[in-house]
Specification:
The chain is of the alpha/beta class. It has 26 helices and 21 strands.
């Protein structure tokens, strides 16, 4: 089933992959040159150029398809899954693609509705349709209501009947568009595509010049076609796309060994570009498992009565958050008879990140009343007792300074469950204090990113003092620069743009405020969002790169470009360092290809000014490319797989902005040097074209040496040794080549 599903996912992409690798301007030009070479008598050169052209295209298509297959395999690990209720009432976890019309789907907090459906059972279920409609509010759904594909369950749970199969749903269409390998190229991919495209335009101009000059000089048709073929091989860095695709594919596979899963094959580049890193506190800086450290019961209640009220909320609300599970475990360890209390749950209002509290209406010995569970700050204004309010403030302040979380339980004799507490009078029941440990290695991870110049920001719904204390303890810079969601509620759109970058800690904020913050940070630079909860989903969707915990809610995994398989933020620095090495390898490879094309073009211009024809044949160019880009490419790929040394973080320059200065400087020197050697040797040496070709190989290696040092900021002794071994190997191969008659004849080497 999985293999069939993999092939079904990949098959629609095969046609577009083949089309975009074959039907491009450059390929059309080279194909015409191949045909002309054969027609005008140089069948050997035409055949070989055709073979090289076909192999390059075939390799590009193969690597593109392999990259697509790899991406789909990775995505299937985190594919959208849902619980289906079978006719015999059993439940099974299935992939969204297996959903059929009429299936009953069980939905719970954090799930995403995979297709259009109708709610047939609801237990205070609320949804957010922000990913589809853009409206960030969460609202309730009743039996009979339609649930659209892509809606996120933000509270409660329910059962929906599927009205369509997954592949017909809006979510499936959106997912296909978002996850298409070719539809969302990175800036490096766009840059290299532009290089190939403009190389084609330059080649057209050069061809017109060669034809015009050939006609005026009465050159033979074969000579003109040979020149065009050689220049086509020189000017167009055709293997560049192949190498780039290959390195991205190898990179995606390499990260999985570091417990980091890619859902976008080009996420390598994105990891290396992070300038703003946003994250929640719980689950990222601290472990996601909470433990109740203490329970403060108000003197008006006996411990057993308070515990019974809290337990009634747990059972009645269906809340399965880590916080409530910790409370449940704590209460069960203290009292085995909680289930025996005669308390009936009449109705429930489950906890929601948008509402920041949950409640149940109960019937017990004291009659009807409502029990509320939520953040202390939210309840403070609604607590009627002065002493209760002072006690709550004292406990919150003491524990917040210690970096601990506090949960408040209150009750009201008014049995209604309001969606807004502004007109509700509450009395305290109990206060829970939680502790959780820091993620292992979190301090080193924070230090790593800050040393790279990355600005870390904490976006949390917790108490301001708690968040600040935790941020200080793990080493976040400027942890005192804090603003609350209440203050931000007064901000205009302009305020978000002007004020957000001033702060590091954003406490007690709502999910929609996270989205606005991400939008503001993106204007300062490439922004990544780390999250695991449903309240992080909208922000992750908006960020340049979403990073999710594997154990997070399904919707965050679906939206993320990168998934941390061990749920540890400490794994991210290793992935970023590996990304630096792969980007370095991509830059070196791209530099060597573009340098050879640029130098070849300038060489043609210089000798044309002096009245000389281009001295190389297509086969000469192929022979030279083995030594200037072919063999060095093997070493560069090895460096990507076996990184060594330390790579400096990338600056804010674009990909071409980083590699082109060295390419231009070296290309000019190389073109002038080879032109000088060629023109001087014409009068004295019959194999001047071979001497010029060997000069190109020598200059190409010199460029490789400088590229390694320039693009990574340093070069290790081991890399120098490997470069010298490469030189020695190339010298041996060249020596053998010029002493084997078949190779001399085949590549038109003049001796």
């Amino acid at each position: 089933m999985r293999k069939f599903e993999l092939y079904r996912r990949v098959l629609p992409s095969v046609g577009p992959i083949i089309f975009r690798n074959i039907f491009v301007l450059v390929n059309a030009i080279i194909l015409i040159v191949v045909v002309l070479l054969v027609v005008f008598g140089n069948g050997q050169a035409g055949l070989f150029l055709g073979i090289v052209f076909s192999l390059n295209t075939l390799i590009a298509i193969t690597q593109d398809i392999r990259a697509r297959i790899l991406l789909e395999k990775l995505q299937m690990l985190t594919a959208l899954k849902v619980v289906r209720i079978n006719k015999d009432k059993t439940e099974e976890l299935i992939m969204a693609e297996e959903i059929l019309r009429g299936d009953l789907l069980k939905l719970k907090l954090g799930d995403q509705m995979p297709c259009e459906g109708v709610l047939i059972s609801s237990d205070n279920m609320e949804v957010s349709e922000a990913l589809v409609t853009g409206e960030s509010d969460s609202f309730p759904k009743k039996i009979g209501d339609k649930v659209i594909a892509g809606a996120i369950i933000t509270s409660g749970f329910g059962i929906a009947e599927a009205q369509e199969i997954f592949h017909q749903s809006r979510l499936s269409v959106i997912a296909e568009d978002v996850k298409k390998y070719a539809a969302s190229p990175s800036s490096i991919q766009r840059a290299t595509t532009n290089v190939i495209k403009y190389s084609g335009y330059i080649l057209l101009i050069v061809i017109l010049f060669v034809i015009s000059r050939g006609v005026l000089m009465h050159a033979s048709r074969l000579e003109i076609v040979n020149n065009i073929g050689a220049l086509a091989s020189t000017i167009v860095p055709q293997g560049l796309v192949v190498v780039l695709t290959l390195l991205f594919a190898i990179g995606a596979a390499s990260y999985s060994r570091k417990n980091v899963l890619f859902q976008e094959i080009n996420a390598t580049e994105k990891l290396g570009r992070i300038k703003n890193l946003c994250m929640d506190k719980t689950g990222t800086l601290t472990d996601n498992v909470l433990v109740v450290e203490d329970m403060h019961v108000l003197k008006e209640f006996r411990d057993t009565d308070a515990e019974a009220l809290v337990f009634s909320y747990i059972l009645g609300s269906g809340d399965s958050s880590q916080t409530i599970l910790a409370v449940k475990k704590y209460l069960e360890s203290k009292n085995d008879n909680l289930n025996n209390k005669k308390i009936e749950v009449v109705s429930a209002l489950p906890f929601s990140s948008w509402r920041q509290y949950g409640a149940v209406e109960i019937m017990g010995d004291m009659g009807k009343q409502a029990v509320f569970v939520g953040t202390p700050e939210l309840f403070l204004n609604s607590i009627s007792g002065v002493e209760e309010k002072k006690l709550l403030q004292k406990i919150v302040l003491e524990n917040a300074r210690a970096g601990k979380r506090v949960l408040c339980v209150a009750h009201s004799s008014d049995a209604e469950l309001p969606k807004d507490l502004s007109n509700t009078s509450l009395s305290m029941v109990a206060i829970f204090v939680f502790k959780n440990t820091f993620r292992q290695g979190i301090n080193d991870a924070v230090k790593f990113f800050q040393n790279r110049g990355v600005r870390i920001r904490i976006l949390s719904g917790d108490n301001p003092a708690t968040v600040c204390r935790v941020a200080e303890d793990v080493g976040v810079n400027c942890a005192g620069d804090m603003v609350t969601g209440e203050e931000m509620a007064k901000w205009s759109e302009k305020d978000f743009e002007n004020q957000a970058h001033k702060y590091t800690i954003f406490a007690q904020i709502l999910p929609e405020q996270k989205v606005k913050l991400i939008e503001a940070f993106k204007k300062d630079g490439f922004t990544a969002m780390v999250g695991d909860g449903v309240n992080d989903a909208l922000a992750m969707k908006k960020a340049d790169l979403g990073i999710a915990m594997f154990d997070g809610v399904p919707v965050t995994r679906q939206l993320a470009g990168v998934i941390l398989m061990t749920n540890s933020f400490a794994d991210l620095p290793g992935a970023v360092e590996l990304a630096d090495h792969f980007i370095r390898s991509i830059e070196i490879s791209s530099g060597t290809y573009i340098n050879q094309s640029f130098a070849g073009l300038l060489f043609f211009v210089v000798i044309s000014i002096f009245g000389y024809a281009f001295p190389f044949t297509p086969l000469n160019i192929t022979f030279m490319n083995y030594f200037t880009v072919g063999l060095p490419g093997i070493l560069i790929a090895y460096w990507a797989l076996r990184p060594m040394g330390k790579i400096l973080p990338k600056n804010n320059k674009s990909f071409l902005g980083r590699i082109m200065p060295l390419v231009i400087y070296c290309g000019i020197i190389e073109a002038i040097g080879v032109s000088f050697i060629y023109i001087l040797s014409l009068q004295y040496i019959k194999n001047s074209s071979t001497l010029a070709g060997l000069s190109f190989i020598l200059f190409g290696f010199v460029f490789l040496f400088f590229a390694v040092k320039t693009y990574c900021g340093s070069i290790t002794k081991r890399e120098v040794f490997q470069l010298l071994l490469l030189v020695l190997f190339e010298l041996v191969i060249i020596y053998l080549a010029i002493h084997i008659s078949f190779i001399i004849k085949f590549f038109n080497i003049m001796l």
